[in-house]
Design goal:
This protein is an alpha/beta fold. The protein is built from 17 helices and 13 strands. A 5-stranded mixed sheet has the order 1-2-4-3-5, with helices on both faces. It has a 5-stranded parallel sheet with strand order 7-6-11-12-13, sandwiched between helices. A 3-stranded antiparallel sheet has the order 8-9-10. 53% of the residues are buried. The structure holds NADPH dihydro-nicotinamide-adenine-dinucleotide phosphate (NDP) and (2Z)-2-iminopentanedioic acid. Residues 165-168, 209, 237-242, 261-263, 317-319, 342-344, 369, 372 line the site of NADPH dihydro-nicotinamide-adenine-dinucleotide phosphate (NDP).
Length: 444
């Protein structure tokens, strides 16, 4: 059996209880197969695929905290330090009831390749907890974050592992975590990114993932003789990534007509009002029904449905496996031109194949949402030199990084005879750098 098939079969058997992790590994291994086949003997002897699919370590811990009624609550915390061949572990912390080891492993695995694609020296990691910040008071969130860091602090550090935000972890949570880390260790260091601007955060980090998504889409459109101006865009999610994707799309002259949360979705024929969306989501932490209530022309629908809206470009920005085969069929039937992932693995494997087979330009999250972690790495650089750069400086670097990623993945796909297959291109380009570093560093 080919080495790549052998390892995939092993992973499927060994981690049968982690479907999202298997899905992420399968997509990567299937698409990098030509690179593996061409180096079969070396990679087999070096056990490259076993090593890259097994985290360096996975830390699982108890997080006890006291709620506002004096009741002790217990959550489970995770940090998966996947691969540090090219730099310290780097990746977000997800706070959502759906979090389990398999979810964190899939995200950590994706992060290895994403971080490599940024061109910056960062390895792959991810963490989080099944804690749900929704509906909790600020004091409860602080109690949770302090307890979380009281255990996690032992395993992280500016040159070791640098966590950041993800679903459910925003500026408030990072602030509480940073305060607790500093209190325990006495260190004022760049151990977390996405920090507030008054204590080491970087300008443009808040906007970076959404803006970066649009920068890469813009570059792809340009290379295909198209422009963003005048395009209709549908976006899912209403969090950090979605909000700034909507904002940048509008700045580029496109019209974004949808957004969503876990309860329902908005169709706003006049274009989403970003200021109102921020007020509802970032300030009030309320539901999208409040957005609809303030916009007479907007429709609110319960459940899922953004992919049924006719558009030129679709940008899934909420969560994994939120765009299914039926959605892909509907998008294609409605004439969609491009799909780019703001979220991590939002498109199922069947949906991805269907879109690609029908000529839709498809950019996978590890390339298209890499602007967030890239800007986190820029935050680390600023922390190291104890300086802060202007918004324009960071934003210009972000644009350069996203344009580079597009050309790197396009080129890698071409080199392996898969022109226009950005999934293959992203996985190959991401893998090449990591594998070279792994082999150079010996068996570790
Ligand atoms: P936020 O918590 O800010 O927002 C998440 C949004 O997605 C919310 O609108 C939320 O709705 C919705 N959502 C979350 N889970 C579900 C679900 N199971 N079903 C339906 N809707 C859901 O997170 P981010 O915007 O930061 O993250 C969104 C995606 O982008 C994630 O996949 C994340 O991993 C990825 N990402 C984030 C980066 C970042 O810098 N923040 C960088 C790169 C990728 P509700 O509020 O109702 O839960
Ligand atoms: O999925 C991701 O890339 C993130 N959540 C951002 C990670 C980071 O370290 O900024």
């Amino acid at each position: 059996m080919r080495y790549v098939e052998e390892v995939l079969a092993k992973v499927k058997k060994q981690y049968a209880a982690e479907p999202e992790f298997i899905q992420a590994v399968e997509e990567v291994l299937e698409t990098i197969a030509p690179v593996i086949d061409a180096n079969e003997e070396l990679y087999r002897r070096e056990a490259i695929l076993e090593r890259i699919t097994t985290p360096d370590r996975a830390i699982i811990f108890r997080i006890p905290w006291v709620d506002d009624n004096g009741q002790v609550q217990v959550n489970t915390g995770y940090r998966v330090q996947f691969n540090n061949a090219i730099g310290p572990y780097k990746g977000g912390l997800r706070l959502h009831p759906s979090v389990n080891l398999g979810i964190i492993k899939f995200l950590g695995f994706e992060q290895i390749f994403k971080n490599s694609l940024t061109g910056l020296p960062i390895g792959g990691g991810k963490g989080g907890s099944d804690f749900d910040p929704k509906g909790k008071s600020d004091r409860e969130v602080m109690a949770f974050c302090q307890s979380f860091i009281t255990e996690l602090y032992k395993y992280i550090g500016a040159d070791v592992d640098v966590p950041a935000g993800d679903i459910g972890t925003g500026a408030r949570e990072i602030g509480y975590m940073y305060g607790q880390y500093k209190r325990i260790t006495g260190l004022y260091e760049g151990v977390l990114t996405g920090k507030g601007l008054t204590y080491g955060g970087s300008l443009a980090r808040t906007e970076a993932t959404g803006y970066g998504l649009l920068y890469i889409v813009q570059e792809m459109m340009k290379c295909h003789g198209q422009e963003m101006a005048g395009k209709t865009v549908v976006i899912s999610g209403a969090g950090n990534v979605a909000t700034y994707a909507i904002q940048k799309a509008q700045q580029l002259g496109a019209k974004v007509v949808t957004c969503s949360d876990s309860n329902g979705w908005i169709y706003d024929p006049d274009g989403i009002d970003v200021a109102l969306l921020k007020e509802v989501k970032e300030v009030k932490r309320a539901r999208l029904t409040e957005y609809a209530a303030a916009r007479p022309n907007a429709e609110y629908h319960e459940g899922r449905g953004v992919w049924s809206v006719k558009c030129d470009i679709a940008l899934p920005c909420a969560t994994q496996n939120e765009l299914h085969l039926e959605d892909a069929k509907q998008l294609v039937a409605n004439g969609v031109m491009a799909v780019a992932e703001g979220a991590n693995m939002p498109t199922t494997m069947e949906a991805t194949k269907y879109l690609q087979d029908n000529g839709v330009w498809f950019i996978p999250g590890k390339a298209s949402n890499a602007g967030g972690v890239a800007t986190s790495a820029l935050e680390m650089s600023q922390n190291s030199e104890r300086l802060s750069w202007s918004f324009e400086e960071v934003d210009a670097k972000l644009q350069g990084i996203m344009v580079n990623i597009y050309h790197n993945i396009e080129d890698a796909a071409k080199r392996y005879g898969k022109e226009g297959d950005y999934v293959t291109g992203a996985n190959i380009a991401g893998f090449e750098k990591v594998v070279t570093a792994m082999i150079a560093q010996g068996v570790c």
